[in-house]
Structures are given as C-alpha cells and as structure tokens.
Amino acid sequence: MTNDMNGLGHSLGDLTMFNISYSKSILITLLLSFSLTGCGKAKTFQQVSAEELNRIPSEMETPETPDTDDIEPESTNAVSNTTTTQDPQVSQPTSPQAPSTQRPTLRPKPPTPRPINRPNTNNNQAYDPNDVLAPTPEGPSKFIQIAQWIINNEARKLGTACNFYVSRVLEIAGYSDDSFIANDFDLYAQRNFSNYDSKSFDSNLEDVERPRMRAHIWSYPERTPFIINWERSGGQHGHIAILERIGNQLVIFQANMNKHLPKRQQTTIENIVSYSRRAKITVYAQFRK
C-alpha cells in the first residue's frame, strides 16, 4: 500500500512538472508571437525581401473604371473581394444614348489651400537612413517595403477599396490614421503632412500632360515613393495608389474596387494619364509626417 501511494505521488509530481513545463512553453510561444506581430495599431513591420521588390512585376495593370474605385471609410462591411453584379433595382435606359463629346469638368481646388513647403531637392544632399521615404542601400524605401508587406499579409482583410489600402500603408508608416476617400485625399494631405511636394495634371489634356508627368517623376531619384491621386467630379469615385520608379519602369501598388485586392503591378505614364480616367491627377512626393 505504501509503495502504491509513493508511486501515485511520483506520478502526480511528474504530471505537475509536465504541466508547468507545458505552460511555460505556451507562455514563451505567446510572448514571441506578440513581439513579432505587435498589437492593434503597432507601427512596426516585417521587412520584405529586397530581391522581391527589385524585380519588375510581369503583370501590367488594367486601369480602374471611374465609378468603382474607393468606398466611404465607415462602410467597411460593403467591401467585397469578388466582382459584383449590377444592382437589379437600378433602372436602365430604354434606348442607347449617344456618348457625350463634352470633356468632364474637374472639381475645383479648395479656395484657400495650405501653402506647400517644397523640400530641398539638392541631389548632393545625403538621405537620412531613418527616413521612411528614403531609398535604402538595398533599393526600396521603407514606405515601399510596408506597402508590399501589407499586400503579403493583410490584403484579404483590407478588401478591394483603394483608399483602405493606402490608408493602412500610411498608418503603419507612422502617419495619421485619419480616414479619407480618394476624392478628398488633398484634405488629408493638408491636415496631416507637415510639408509635401504636389503637382497636378489634367487627364483631359493627355498629350500635353504625359510628358510633363514623365519629366516630374523622373526629376526625383530612382526608388522615390509617390502617392498618385485621381480626383473626379460629378459624383464619381476617385482613385488612389502608391508608385515608384525602378530604372525606366514604373511600379504601382493599388487595390481596385470589386476587381482585385491590393497588388503590385507594372504601369506606364500612358496608363496613369489617360482621358478614360476622367480625372485631375495629383502626384504627391516627399510627404513628411
């Protein structure tokens, strides 16, 4: 009987030690997971492979249609990851209408925009290695690395709204998490960037504006990140994306409402400045916190 009790005591002791060891293992795993992923609105990110970001994507973007680009920030439940069919309740015209030849009127600028403090563009000035916008020795800036990290890790959660994607990149990069729709991104910039360089182009004048935009983008060092904003009037949705130049190629990071989740694609000046987009296009560079 005594031997049985001793054996039972040893077994209970072994079981207790196993439970303590197992609990410690779970605790260590949880702590490691927390340290890697952070919580809620942590501003840290896992750098993606520079090799991945130094390759030109083979897929060429298909420009979005003006009526399905972004979504109101409060309407998160309306985001869809698949193409939707047309609402049957929307009445359809009984006879085809002739296309209008009148060029769309662009939304006017705010009457009193905040003055833009142009950054020092001295090419001899060394880049701050802690600057999230600065190209790194490996190539891509931290801002672009964040844009790709979100594509790799959070695309499905964000859905297909272009403004949700760019807003999330800005948030993780340490900028304000104020919500915005693409047509009103100029208001976000005025409120939340300490300074920035912006230049606008009119898609109605594509033959004139394409060489202007090319000269503007190529005036910045390779791997400079840009935010591209298509602003539309007449109740049409705007669009917003992130852009960088690798050599003579342009790479765009964007979601496309009801068409695709955030992805990295190749693009061209011709795609960006196209009359079919019917927009005022603003290129933001050197946007500081």
Rounded radius of gyration (Å): 25 Å
Mean pLDDT: 75
Q: First CA to last CA: what distance? A: 76 Å
Total number of strands: 6
Spatial strand arrangement across the major sheet:
1-6-2-3-4-5
What share of the residues does DSSP label as strand, in percent?
Answer: 5-15%
Relative helix content: 25-40%
| Protein structure class | alpha+beta
* Major pleated sheet: 6 strands, antiparallel
Please, how many helices?
8
Helices and strands in order, then pairings?
Layout lengths: L1 H36 L12 H5 L87 H12 L1 H4 L3 H11 L12 H8 L4 E6 L3 H13 L7 E6 L7 E8 L2 E8 L3 E8 L1 H4 L7 E6 L4
Provide a brief overview of the structure.
This protein has helices spanning 2-37, 50-54, 142-153, 155-158, 162-172, 185-192, 206-218, 269-272, and strands spanning 197-202, 226-231, 239-246, 249-256, 260-267, 280-285. By secondary structure, the protein is α+β, with helices and mostly antiparallel strands. Strands 1-6-2-3-4-5 form a six-stranded antiparallel sheet, with helices on both faces.
Structure characteristics:
289 residues, alpha+beta, 6-stranded antiparallel sheet, 8 helices, 32% helix, 15% strand
Written description of the protein model:
It contains eight helices and six strands; from the N terminus they run H-H-H-H-H-H-E-H-E-E-E-E-H-E. Helix 3 (142-153) crosses helix 5 (162-172). The protein has a domain at 132-289. The protein has helices at 2-37, 50-54, 142-153, 155-158, 162-172, 185-192, 206-218, 269-272; strands spanning 197-202, 226-231, 239-246, 249-256, 260-267, 280-285. 32% of the residues lie in helices and 15% in strands.
